[in-house]
Amino acid sequence: MSNPLTLDPYAGNILTQGLGPIRSRMETAKALTELPKRLHSMEGIPPHFALHYLMSVRDFHFPSVEECRLHQTIDLMVRQNYRYLDPTAAATWATVSGDRAGAPNRAPAYGAAVVGHSGTGKTEAILRCLRSYPRQVIEHDSFPRLVGSHQQVVWLSINVPPSGRTVDLATDLMRETDRVTGENRFASELSRERRDGMKMLDSWRQVATSHFLGILHLDEIQNLFKLATLKKRRTRSGIPTEAPELSIVEDQFLKWILILMNTWHVPLLLSGTPDGIGALTRRLSTTERIVTSGYHVFQHFESATDSNYRKNFLEQLGKYQYVQKKLPVDDELANLILELTGGIQRLIVALWIAAHRVALERNDGSLTLNDFRKAAATYLAAVAPAVAAFRSKDPVKMARYEDLLPRNDAMWSQFWGSVSQM
Fold first, then answer.
1. pTM, whole model, 2 decimals?
2. Which residues pair with 156 in a beta bridge?
3. How many angstroms separate the Cα of 111 from the Cα of each of 269, 279, 413?
4. What is the CA radius of gyration of the chain?
5. How many whole angstroms separate alpha carbon 275 and alpha carbon 406?
6. By C-alpha distance, which of 287, 363, 369 is closest to 330?
7. pLDDT digit string (tens) for 58-114?
8. Which of 34, 199, 297, 306 is the most buried (most CB within 10 A)?
9. Cα–Cα dist 422/415, whole Å
């Protein structure tokens, strides 16, 4: 078998040397999996202690196939872009300095989108993929064409602020960059009373480019858009008839996104709920640039026969039972959990913990199906209407919940779905 080190397609590039190995699909799944330590016996452990052991289930994470594909997409974006930004090349420094006359024009734009309803695990998956790199910031004792040490920022991840305004986004980007680098580059700009969002974004971009930012992740992309008021969406019956169109808060921000990728070669990963990603891809005339590297749809579990749910996720979760009399992980339990959670991963874990709390309060050493029903009716009662709407797949009912608004992503989903089978 060949030594992976001798096969490195990026050998000699200082930007890729600290990224760790290029992982196979199996290695990726292992790196992304987190299975908390289990108690194999509950004998002698009182309920109030069991409750504290139970909370480790919140750390449970079993990656889906789509998450492993996402990891590959991110890794390709980062490493391939670094291939075009080799710091030993003079043209690379033309890009960093802003000298467009001497900058290379062969580097493509790297962009990808991740879409999924709230709770389907897209944000957690992205962060786990990013954190799978050995370091977020690589400290170089020496660096080509520079005197002294230099910091390379592999990735940054922030939420688009609820306001959707460029000035707030730029502020968050500056603060996060200063935080991860341990610097104070933006103190002067952040202290100003009057701020220009686009000028701040360009100032941030200059610093990010000088640190050879590997990828920028913008989550909650739906915050860029304004949702029509509920009053405007209602009919005479008081029920929304369809998913409303969204309007952009600041149109100039979309132009900045394209310039960031096309001109400055910063790979961009966008994620959000179907309403936000749908509005973004319809708004941009150059949609293909946002998804040149991948389009990943994170689905909820829909069927108890789905192997990703039944044989992988639930089979592993079912091992974390903090009672003496274990509940069989069978079809009846699998169907009940889908009924009570709509197959939304975050709610499944929440329900699992809540059912145990009900069981531990009863204190007879068992976990039953009724514990799940009672937990859903009490601890998870607040989300029951959204779950019912989600399970109905009725656009009218789903339109009552902003993050459940259905959007048509069939074209890109089908395209990247076929590619992933290769």
1. 0.87
2. 216
3. 6, 17, 15
4. 24
5. 7
6. 369
7. 999 999 999 999 999 999 999 999 998 999 988 888 778 776 544 555 667 889 999
8. 297
9. 12
Q: Is residue 102 part of a domain?
A: yes
Gap between the Cα atoms of 244 and 402, Å rounded: 9
Judged by average pLDDT, the poorest of 90-104, 108-122, 287-301, 341-355 is 90-104
Give me the DSSP letters along 328-362. P--HHHHHHHHHHHTT-HHHHHHHHHHHHHHHHHH
Q: How many domains does the chain have?
A: 1
**If you count them, how many residues does the chain have?**
422
Give me the torsion for CA of 65, 68, 73, 75, rounded to 10°.
Answer: -170
Range in 235-249, 353-367, 379-393 the model is least confident about = 235-249
Kindly state the tokens that stand for 234: 């209602």
Task: For 285-301, give one letter per residue: b (16+ CB within 10 A) or e.
Answer: eeeebbbbbbbbbbbbb
Contact 111, 167 (CB under 8 A): no
pLDDT at 273: 86
Are residues 208 and 182 in contact, defined by beta-carbon separation less than 8 angstroms? Answer: no
226 with 232: CB under 8 angstroms? no
User: What is the average pLDDT score of the chain?
Assistant: 85
Residue 342 in domain = no
Q: Measuring CA to CA, which residue among 28, 144, 32 is closest to residue 82?
A: 144
Residues 6+ apart with CB under 8 A from 6: none
Specify the residue for token string 């998870």.
380
How far is the C-alpha of 315 from the C-alpha of 76, rounded, in Å? 31
Q: Which of 71, 109, 72, 81 is nearest to 284 (CA)?
A: 109
For range 391-397, the mean pLDDT: 74
**Residue 126 lies inside a defined structural domain of this protein:** yes
What secondary structure letter does DSSP report for 235?
-
The encoded tokens of residue 359 equal 């069981």
31 confidence band (pLDDT: 50, 70, 90): very high
C-beta separation of 233 from 240 below 8 A: yes
CA distance 313 to 157: 26
**Token couple for 113:** 């989108």
Question: Is residue 258 in some structural domain?
Answer: yes
Provide the residue range defining the domain that includes 228.
65-299
Whether the CB-CB separation of 153 and 137 falls below 8 Å is answered with yes
Q: What is the CATH number of the domain that holds 235?
A: 3.40.50.300
Contacts of residue 306, defined as CB under 8 A and 6 or more positions apart, other chains included, come to none
Per DSSP (E only), the strands in 47-163 are 111-116, 137-140, 150-153, 155-159
